[in-house]
Q: What sequence folds into this?
């Protein structure tokens, strides 16, 4: 009987475990640099938060 209860509890908790994931949220997703000359050095920082409930790992970043 105890094994059946344990199996039922595990099966009921699987959907909750599958939703555990990192989630990235950016305050802004675009930025207009305006007119930029060929010798201008510019930078901008995009702020983001991990709104999920697991560790967020960023493995690759590219500019577009």
A:
């Amino acid at each position: 009987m105890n094994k059946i209860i344990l199996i039922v509890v595990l099966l009921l908790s699987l959907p909750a475990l599958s939703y555990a994931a990192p989630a990235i949220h950016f305050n802004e997703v675009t930025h207009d640099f305006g007119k930029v000359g060929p010798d201008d050095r510019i930078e901008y920082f995009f702020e983001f938060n991990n709104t999920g409930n697991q560790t967020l790992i960023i493995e690759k970043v590219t500019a577009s």
Observations:
- The chain has one domain: 20-64.
